Each structure stands twice: as C-alpha cells, then as structure tokens.
Amino acid sequence: MAHRVFIDGEAGTTGLQIRDRLARRSDVDLIQIDPARRKDPDARRDAMAAADVAILCLPDAAAREAVALAEGLPQGRGVRFIDASSAHRVADGWTYGFAELAPGARAAIAASARVSNPGCYATGAIALLAPLVAAGVLAADEVASINAVSGYTGGGKDLIAEMEGQGAPDHFVYALGQAHKHLPEIIARSALTRRPVFAPAVGRFAQGMVVQVPVQLNGRRLADLHDALAAHYADERFVRVIPPQPRVVPTVLNDTNDLELSVHGSDDSGCAVLVAVLDNLGKGASGAAVQNLNLMIGADEDAGL
C-alpha cells in the first residue's frame, strides 16, 4: 500500500525538488491541491487529513500555521510532519532530522511524528563539528568560526530573480550581525557551548555549497581530526570523508544527497580548515527531506535518492 504524502509549498524550490524525487515512486502517492487554493486553510487541512506525512516547504510562520491547522483534525486522523523550514529545529517535541548525526538518530526519526529538517549551512557545520566534539578532539568551548558560500537558490524567489537578472553581483557576504537563523541549531546540535562566529555568503551559481571551519590545532594533528570524522561516518551511504583537495568546488555534488568532508592545513603551521561540500537543495534541503521520509515510512533509506 502506497504512503500518502502532501507537500505543503510544493511550488517553491525545495518543494519542487522533493516532488520530482517522489513522483516516480510506486510506494508514494502525492496528494495535491488546486494551485489556486494552495494558501486556502481548508484545502490544506483537508490535504493533511488525507496524508500520512506532510512535508512543509514554507516560511517559518506558515509552517507553524500548518502544524496548528493539523492540530484541529478529528482524533485519529493525525498526520506526521517533516518541516523543511527553520521553525522547529530547536523546538521541544521535534526530532532533528540528521540521520548520520549520532547513534540512535535514525531510530528516533523513524519513530517520530514531527521531524525538523536541518538547515543547509547547519548541515555542513554540524557534520564537521559534532563528531569532533563528541570524540573529544575539539573542546565544547572551542573558539570556532564558520565561513560558507551557497548557491543563490537557498534564498528563495526574490533572490533567485535578483541573481538571474541583469547587474547582479557575482558574490556577496550577508547576515554579519550574527543573527542568522541557522545559528541556534548549529550551537544546539554541534554541542558547542561558545557561540561561533558565522559569515555566510552567496555566489552567482544556482546550487551547491562549501562550509569552512578554521581551527587552531593547539597540539592536535590533522590526522586526529580526519580520523575522528572518518570513524564517525565509516558506514554511511551519503557522507564521505575524503583527502584534502587542491581546490574545493561548491557545485561538485549538485543534484545528489551526498556530503563530503575533508581536513586541510598543515601540522607545521598549527592551523587547519575543516571543509564540507553539499548541494544546498540536496542534502541541505530536498534530499534530506526524502531521506527522512524514507526512514519514517520504512522504505529503503536511499529510495529516490
């Protein structure tokens, strides 16, 4: 029997990619509503009532509204949620949907009725930091900085229109006031006790992302960092720890659910740069949502990926 899935916000960039990944599957039936009624609360509530899982590809306020709509459904018609927004990433009662993060994460996602997708920048940063803090290779109070550049599709329709128009910049840095919406989950899910400095940027390319975390070695070796990451992700399908590369290109994993991690620098200099590469719309958004859906419905984890 196919599982019924409603993508609330399927007309957006993330929603479209999720739909494309699910449309050809025989184990999933997509519930869709008339595009003219896609913001109609009654139409959305009816779609959620008919669904086994609703995937929310909405701004934060609309995602919270969707959850509230579902709470008004008759008893016994509960829908499970995957929220691709940042509304619930550190909220009580929500499971953080990063299957590779820690032992037990997959089981928690599979059993949960409410799963919050990680943010794209946060996926790269947490994937690098959390295993190293857990292994004691990095201290929880490490003085960390995070620098990243993303394709412009992560910024929504207005930014897409700007970057694809005439006179758009090739690159810009933003959110330097240290209030970026991914910071709370980076702090919470990486187990850092000291707030990192975060400097995100956007390049004039549609998809792809590089996240960099410079660290002082302070007596550690590059091999200590590499080996701890390699041990943590040794059996993972979508996460690979690779040797350092002469160039790191943000678009090499586009249209995949893959994440590549590497450690750069030199022991002699005492400096290292931890690097993560991913597709901001793949492992950073739609791919992660489909991976979480697969766990929740008992499908093969890589189905559609």
Protein architecture, described:
This protein has 305 residues and is of the alpha/beta class. The protein has two domains: 3-118 and 285-297, Rossmann fold; 120-280, 2-Layer Sandwich (Dihydrodipicolinate Reductase, domain 2). Helices cover 32% and strands 22% of the residues. The strands form two sheets. A seven-stranded mixed beta sheet has the order 8-9-7-10-13-12-11. It has a six-stranded parallel beta sheet with strand order 2-1-3-4-6-5, sandwiched between helices. Strand 1 (3-8), helix 1 and strand 2 (28-31) form a beta-alpha-beta unit. The relative contact order is 0.16. The model has no long low-confidence stretch (mean pLDDT 93).
Topology:
Blueprint: E1 3-8, H1 13-22, E2 28-31, H2 41-50, E3 53-56, H3 60-71, E4 80-83, E5 95-96, H4 105-111, E6 114-116, H5 120-134, E7 145-151, H6 156-163, E8 171-173, H7 183-190, E9 197-203, E10 209-216, H8 222-232, E11 239-241, E12 259-266, E13 271-278, H9 282-297
Parallel strand pairs: 1-2, 1-3, 3-4, 4-6, 5-6, 7-9, 11-12
Antiparallel strand pairs: 7-10, 8-9, 10-13, 12-13
Helix pairs in contact: 1-9, 4-9, 5-7
Helix content: 25-40%
CATH homologous superfamily heading of the largest domain: Dihydrodipicolinate Reductase, domain 2
Average pLDDT score = 93
Low-confidence stretches: none
Task: Return the structural class.
Answer: alpha/beta
CATH topology of the largest domain: Dihydrodipicolinate Reductase, domain 2
- How many discrete structural domains? 2
Estimate the strand proportion. 15-25%
Give the CATH architecture of the largest domain: 2-Layer Sandwich
Number of helices: 9
CATH class of the largest domain equals: Alpha Beta
- The span between the termini is 21 Å
Main sheet record: 7 strands, mixed
